[in-house]
What does this fold into?
Amino acid sequence: MKGNGKVIRRILVYRNKEDREILKQTSEEVTEINNDIKNLIQDMKDTLHSVHNGKGISAIQIGEPKQICICSWGGEEYVLINPKITRTRGEEKYIEGCLSVPSVYKEITRYQKVWCTYTDENGNIKELAEGGRMSDIIQHEIDHFSGSCKVYTE
Ligand SMILES: [Zn+2]
It folds into this structure.
């Protein structure tokens, strides 16, 4: 769907058998931030922002098995390319939803705080430290890279 130059991509849904096969794929690391990757990131932003209260999206949720996710909370938004959690602290329970599992919410135990290295949209290697809900969102989106999501119903 196009409008105002934005590209809103269809979000794959876990209960749909064909979508599910794709969602279960393993995502590959990004080796070069070329125009295809930049366009993909823009589509991910437009798609996430089109969803009321959307907090995070991984590339596989629009059918692209790449290690890219967007995490948005409290006015802050990260584009994480090849993110890796390097350190964790504590535990906390969160009620989570997932764009690919509409209307399902589950209580999930997560690390309360994570440290993470990643590449940003401009190719710079960075490190973040986040606690609370942003930490939860980051852990949720990274799970999608291995083809899993704790909100999926088996
Ligand atoms: Zn999910």
Summary: The chain has three helices and seven strands. Helices lie at 17-23, 35-49, 132-143. The first strand starts at residue 2 and ends at 3.
